User: What shape does this take?
Amino acid sequence: MPVQAPFELEKLSNKEYILNMGPQHPSTHGVLRVVLKLEGELVKDVFPDVGYIHSGVEKLCENRTYPAIVPYLDRLDYLGAVNLEWAYVLAVEKLCGIQVPERAEYIRVILAELNRVMSHLLWYSAFGMDVGALTPIFYAFREREEIIALVEAATGGRLTHNALRIGGFRNDLPKDFLPGLSRFLSSFEKKVDEYEALLIDNVILTARTRGVGVLDPELAVNYGVTGPSLRGSGPAWDLRRTAPYSVYGKFDFRVPVSEGRDTWSRLKVRMDEMRESAKILRQAAAALPAGEVSAKVPRVLKPAPGEAYARVESPRGEFGAWVVSDGTERPYRVKFRSPSFSNLSVLREIAVGCNIADIIAIMGSLDLVIPEIDR
Assistant: This one.
C-alpha cells in the first residue's frame, strides 16, 4: 500500500485539494509519487512518496560474492554507473588492503569524468523537455553519443558498464581510446557554450527559475544535500577536492559554485562542472602512466573480518558504500548512501509557496535518479 501523505482531508479548506503527480508522470523520471496540496495553482504542501521500485539490492549484495556485486551498482544509478562502482570497489579494497596500480587509478578518473559528463548531458536534455524545450536534447545527445562510443569501447557497455574490478580493471584501454578522447575534448567546451545559450540563459527559462526553489546553505547541510544541488547554494563541498580519493589531488580544477541558491543556480553549476571535467580529462590523459591495470587479487576473495566505508563524488553528490566482512566470500552487510535520497528530502522545504508548474523545474534541478533513492 502506498504511504499516505500527512494531509488530513477533513481539514482541507473548500479552496484546497489534493493532487497526485506520479508515479507515472514523465517529469518524475521514474516511479516517484509526489502528493501535492494545492490552492488553485499555489502549492501549500508537498509529500514525496517512494517505494514503487524497491529492489532490496543491499540484501541481494549480501548474498553474492564480492566480485559479483559490481554490476548491481550500475542499476542503482544507471547514469553514473562507474562512479557508484568505484565507491564499492574502494570499500572492498580498503577492507582487503589492496593497492591499485597507478595506471588503473588514472583510467578510473577518466571513465568517471566521462560518466559525469554523460550524466549531466542527459540531465540537461531531460530538464529541457520537462520545462517545454524540445530542441536541447538534439544538441546534447550529439556529444553524449560520442562519449558513449568511447566508454563502450573501453567497457563493452553503453549504459550499465560493469567497468571496474576489485584491484583495478580486467582490460587496458583500447588503442584508439585516447585519440578519440582528444578529438572529443577539442571542441567540447564550445558545445557547452551552445547549451547555455540555447537553454540555461534563455530569457523564458531564467524567468521561470530565478528565485524559485531557494535552498539556503544551512538547510541543505542539515538535510545532507550534496553535489551540484548543494554547490548551487554556495558551499564548495566536492569530495574530489575536499576529501581527495584516488589521484584527484594531482589535478588542477576548480569546484563550481553559485550564490543564487535557486533553481537556476543549480542548473548553472552543472554547466560549469562539465567544463571542469574536460580539464580533468585532459590532464589525466596527458599524465596517464604505463604499467599494469590490475593488482593481484585472489580468485576467491575472503576479506578478514572487519568493515570499511568509502565515498565518491557521483554526478548527483556524495555516494557511499559500507561493507562489513565476516571472513567469508560474501559480505555480512552492505549499505549504500544515496545522494538523491537526501536531495529529494529537501523538496518539501523549498517547494511550498511555489506554483504547481515550478514543482517540475525544482525537481529537475535536483537531478534525481529514482532507483538510487528507492533501493
Notes: The chain has one domain: 57-339. The chain has a mean pLDDT of 94.
